[in-house]
Amino acid sequence: MFIERLSIKNLRNISQADLLLNKKTNVIIGENAAGKTTILEAVDILSRGKSFRTNKTESLVKKGNDELYIGATAGEKRKKLEIHKSKSKTKIVIDGKEEKRQSALAEGLAVQVIHPNSHFLIEGAPAERRAFIDWGLFHVEHQFREEFLKYNKTLRQRNEALKAKDKNQAKWMEELAYLGEKITSMREGYLDALMPHFAYSKDFIMPDYELLFKYDRGWEKGKSLLAALQDKEDIDLDRGYTSRGPQNADLSILLNNEEAHRICSRGQQKLIANIMLLSQSKGFFEVKKFPSIMLVDDLSAELTLEMQEKILERLFETKSQIFLTALNDSVLADILNEMEANVFHVEHGEIAQ
Ligand SMILES: Nc1ncnc2c1ncn2[C@@H]1O[C@H](COP(=O)(O)OP(=O)(O)OP(=O)(O)O)[C@@H](O)[C@H]1O
Ligand SMILES: [Mg+2]
After folding, report:
1. Which atom of ligand 1 is nearest to the CA of 64?
2. b/e map of 237-246 (b: 16 or more CB within 10 Å)?
3. pLDDT at 6
């Protein structure tokens, strides 16, 4: 869903703001420390309950206050989404009714972020890349969330038994293998469907390179997960945790046949991360037929103007609702000012439209 109206209270340096948003493109312009990224964080908090910049609520709540509030009306049906967050409590309200699950907000607002640390998607831990894949599955594959939660619960139970050297650990293995195979085939299917989108963005953004994505499912090739778990049973008992399965999966990324995280410059990593996120957002629209939300913080960091323009072009094609930040008087701000968009000027946490 797109957001039509966004209200923010007591988030970082913003005491109070009400933004009337464009269904397509929203541009946020200001000096350093004005509050640009804070507006993007507001959208992320509303979707996921936390910000791409921090997990700590106390950093987010405006100094001297106890609670932050973010509200929005979203989608054609003008759903009212609200979140109140203090250090000790999160309260979610949807259309006036309190809701226990954070995922109820995320189901409606599918938010992806391109930010100055997006290169972590390439050089960061495998968990970053698994989160990328699982974000897509959570939104487009109806069954995924339930199976994923079941798998993780079973994994926790087995790991506790392994740690306690409890023989009962064996009774979780079959269930774990069954659910793990299911999650794996969903991940593989999802990635297969993304490949044409990857290729399409890659050919435009990095035409001179060969870029390959390979899913490593987290256990040995040519074996069932059950067989892999059985083979490692003694070692797992010794170590106290399950060493094989989709919790260890990774997406290996090869640029000209070499591992991207080993050979890519920071800028190249950012380009690959952009290709991945843009592809995912395009794939999202194709399946769901409604827009996701793309938060793009400081696109100019470490990318040439040519690359920024190419990414913008592909970004607009994704059909997402886009939020872009740019510094006052920057070239990016000039480009964005030319576009059909709602433009917000931020100064010391005050927002003018
Ligand atoms: N909890 C808080 N309470 C009050 N102010 C805060 C809090 N956390 C951060 N700030 C301040 O909020 C301001 C806005 O920060 P933000 O990161 O949104 O700026 P920005 O416009 O994105 O800047 P830049 O161009 O440097 O990225 C900063 O001055 C920061 O010091
Ligand atoms: Mg910023």
Report:
1. 3
2. beeeebbbbb
3. 98
